[in-house]
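Appendix B, Record 12. Input sequence as logged:
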Amino acid sequence: MDWAHATTGPACIDAASLAPQLILAGQTPADIAGLLRDHPATVGSPDTTTAFLAALTGHWHRNARKPAPPGLRAYQHRAAAAGLVLPGYRLSGGPLLATGGH
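Logged structural output:
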């Protein structure tokens, strides 16, 4: 995000950004999928929520492969792995982020 040119964006971005952090903190994919499905900030934009989560995960994967600093790269690897948990959960038969089930 470019804070020098900050603007109002989709409300779902904050919730989508938090989802991988909740995985890192030990929350279950089912709980997070339910939160994203039902939260007022994400309920109206499931496609945007999923797209941003995928883009954020890709960003972490790309940056985790760059040279040092090692501590940051280790975190980025963990965050990228956490970002993949929800799509993996959905692909294995977990409920979609949108309302209406599978």
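The chain has one domain: 11-91.
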